[in-house]
Amino acid sequence: MEHYDWNEGWLFTPTFDPALVRPACPELSLTPVRLPHAVKPLPYNYCNENDYQRLCGYRREFFAPKEWLGRTVLLTFGAVAHDATVFCNGRRVFHHGCGYTAFTVDLTDALRLGQKNVVAVRCDSREDLNIPPFGGQLDALTYGGIYRAVSLDIKEPAYLRDVFIEAKAEGDFRIYTATVGETVGCTLQAEIRSPAGSRAVYSGELSLPITGTLNNVHPWSLEHPTLYTLTVRLIRPGTGGLPDRVLDEKTVRFGFRTVQFVAGGLYLNGQRVELRGLDRHQSYPYQGYAMPDSIQRLDAQLLKKELGCNAVRTCYAPPSPAFLDACDELGLLVFPEMPGWQHIGDEVWQAQALQNCREMVCQYRNHPSIFLWGARISGSPDNEAFYKRTNEAIHRLDPTRPTAGTRSTRKSQLLEDVYAYNDYSYAGRGTGCENRAAVTPDTRKGYLISEFGGQNFPAKPFDDEPHRLVQALHHAAVLNDSIAQPGVAGSFGWCMTDYNTHREFGSGDRICYHGVMDLFRNPKLSAAVYASQKTPRAPSDIVLEVSSAMTLGDLPGGAAAACWVFTNAESVRLYRGNDFVAEFGPDRRDALPPCPTRPSRSMILSARCWKSMRAWITPPAHRSPPSSMSCGGTPWRFRPFPRRGCSRCG
Question: CB neighbours (10 Å) of residue 163?
Answer without folding.
Answer: 20
